[in-house]
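User: Here's a structure from my thesis project, written as structure tokens. My advisor, Dr. K., wants to see whether a designed sequence matches the one we expressed. Can you design one independently, without my sequence as a hint?
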């Protein structure tokens, strides 16, 4: 089995930091908080920009936008009685063409929005050039807004949490892996002492005492007993999980991790998120059964495939889940 015997103290320290989070009991859990397909992040644009690109060069527009999840600022020009189909145009009526928006489910907000209202539409852009040029939005949500435009450097979750990419802070792990964080996280950031990476004690942002912390760290062959094991990322991922949650020297604690028989893979989209592999479970104190925390890992390989970045999320209540997804979205750029 792949083990990190060369630097065992590194992952021991992460484990000890986990114990410092144990402040409250956990409530019920469902799904995976780190799942990038469950909590979508939408890049901002406008109907005007989409139509301009489409009419200028449909093939180029397809390469640029097709498959992207975007929040589109526009004007509502029509809707069908089913509340599953509606139409939008650019706010200045520069183009006579409308963009069809369709949803597999009725959109509850649609009946209350008047024709001519300024809206933003969350959804996936579909551009086809096979038989004829066509543009459509597979809508997840529509809502009225007083805004008519937004920078394409801004991103938003479907819950309305947004961030300007320019305002985010750059972090680089040993020159081998880089990512961005919301500027406010700098106040709760601490460098991990024996493994390259950082901890973000997110519950300190709200001061509510409910355990919530994120770890971002990087592992390559220098942490393996056998450096050649880096070619088998599945073994490496499992070894990281085992060394953090199942360290035999901390016998008073036990972990329940029923996920070693399966990997939950998020397929990489050509124009959307990067590919993550997830492991999930709970962490419980053995003796008094007092603490029960959700523990999730998301792994992403670097471009050279000779190292892996691990995102470890420990929480009772996923208060900052949307901000975490905004951070994870930047890993795809």
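Assistant: Designed independently from the structure alone:
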């Amino acid at each position: 089995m792949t083990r990190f015997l060369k630097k065992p103290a590194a992952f021991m320290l992460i484990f000890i930091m986990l114990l410092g989070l144990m402040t409250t009991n956990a409530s019920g859990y469902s799904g995976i908080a780190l799942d990038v397909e469950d909590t979508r992040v939408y890049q901002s644009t406008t109907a005007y920009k989409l139509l301009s690109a489409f009419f200028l060069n449909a093939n180029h527009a397809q390469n640029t936008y097709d498959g992207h999840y975007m929040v589109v600022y526009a004007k509502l020009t029509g809707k069908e009685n089913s509340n599953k189909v509606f139409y939008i145009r650019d706010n200045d009526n520069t183009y006579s063409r409308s963009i069809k928006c369709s949803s597999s489910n009725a959109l509850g907000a649609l009946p209350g929005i008047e024709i001519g209202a300024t809206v933003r539409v969350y959804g996936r852009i579909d551009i086809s050039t096979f038989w004829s040029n066509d543009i459509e939005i597979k809508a997840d949500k529509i809502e009225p807004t007083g805004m008519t435009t937004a920078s394409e450097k801004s991103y938003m979750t479907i819950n309305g949490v947004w961030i300007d990419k320019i305002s985010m802070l750059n972090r680089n792990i040993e020159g081998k892996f880089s990512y961005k964080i919301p500027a406010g996280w700098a106040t709760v950031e601490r460098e991990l002492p024996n493994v390259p990476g950082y901890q973000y004690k997110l519950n300190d942002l709200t001061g509510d005492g409910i355990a919530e912390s994120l770890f971002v760290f990087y592992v390559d062959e220098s942490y393996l007993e056998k450096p050649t094991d880096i070619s088998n990322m599945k073994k490496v991922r499992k070894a990281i999980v085992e060394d953090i949650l199942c360290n035999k020297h901390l016998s008073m604690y036990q972990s329940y991790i029923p996920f070693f028989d399966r990997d939950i893979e998020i397929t990489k989209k050509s124009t959307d998120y990067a590919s993550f592999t997830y492991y999930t479970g709970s962490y419980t104190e053995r003796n008094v059964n007092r603490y029960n925390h959700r523990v999730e890992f998301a792994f992403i390989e670097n471009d050279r495939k000779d190292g892996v970045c691990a995102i470890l999320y420990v929480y009772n209540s996923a208060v900052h889940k949307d901000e975490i997804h905004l951070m994870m979205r930047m890993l795809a750029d």
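When you compare it with your expressed construct, this may help: The longest strand covers residues 69-79.
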